[in-house]
Specification:
By secondary structure, the protein is of the alpha/beta class. It contains 5 helices and 3 strands; from the N terminus they run H-E-H-H-E-H-E-H. It has one domain: DsrEFH-like (Hypothetical Protein Ychn, Chain: A, 3-Layer(aba) Sandwich), CATH 3.40.1260.10. The longest helix is centred in the middle third of the chain and has 14 residues, at 50-63.
């Protein structure tokens, strides 16, 4: 997320192809939670939600006239039941990843095991 933030702040269009567990980052039903271990309620814990960070990045990109295209791997979404994403996130396929890589000046892949 920090790399995406820096790229947008630097004036770059950004393409994200999220796969595996990363499809949960823009999941619309994320909710804050208490922290019983530390005795904090929901308000005191004030747990950050990745979906709000992504929405803010999309807004910032749009306000700057940039494109932040976030595609969630559809196979990964189905496998995990993560179909409900925030506005602006779209369902994608491995073809989107290929197109992103082919049409970009640089590509960073963060793999999973």
């Amino acid at each position: 997320m920090r790399l995406i933030d820096l790229a947008v702040k630097g004036g770059f269009n950004v393409n994200v192809f999220a796969y595996e567990g990363a499809v949960y980052l823009p999941f619309a039903k994320q909710a804050q939670h208490p922290n019983a271990v530390h005795g904090r309620n929901v308000e005191e814990e004030n747990h950050p939600l990745p979906r709000t960070w992504i929405a803010a990045l999309m807004k910032e990109a749009g306000d700057k006239g940039l494109k932040l295209d976030w595609a969630n791997c559809g196979l990964c979404v189905d496998e995990r039941g993560a179909a409900e994403a925030i506005e602006g996130v779209r369902r994608g396929s491995p073809a989107d990843f290929w197109n992103f890589a082919q049409n970009s000046i640089n590509t960073l892949v963060i793999g999973t095991r």
